[in-house]
Design goal:
Strand content: 35-45%
Structural class: mainly beta
CATH class: Mainly Beta
Mean pLDDT: 94
Largest sheet: 5 strands, antiparallel
Number of strands: 10
CATH superfamily: Jelly Rolls
Length: 145
Amino acid sequence: MLRTHQRDQDRFHFIRPEDVEWRPFPAFPPEARLAVLVGDPTQAGPYVIRVKLPAGVRMAPHRHPEDRLYTVISGVFHIGLGERFDPDSLQAFGPGSVVVLPGGQSHFHWAKDGDYVTQVTALGPLGLDYVEAFDDPRRRHAGAT
């Protein structure tokens, strides 16, 4: 039986923390960073990414079409559900926590207590739609050109 592998899973390899390549992501606030670890989040199939938010940065209410598993790598991940940013509804998750977020669920995050890094595992393609269009950094950049 011929075995086919998922993208980036056809050979043994590893990614050490010092090898992670952090980059800006157009759909994030400018201070936030994203790193692609496994797969291609723009394509159908499994992917693993990391998201880093520095202290004080907020992600406005948004949703993803894909189901997601967030694993907190470092810091405290504050996440709330709903279509408006409500600091009183945030829940805090420390390192090692796993948060299951169904696709289509409006939510928001805040690096309230300092920097945090989460690892996201999902089946692509990755999607990110803000509840309010004016919160989308991609719209601000498009209007600036």
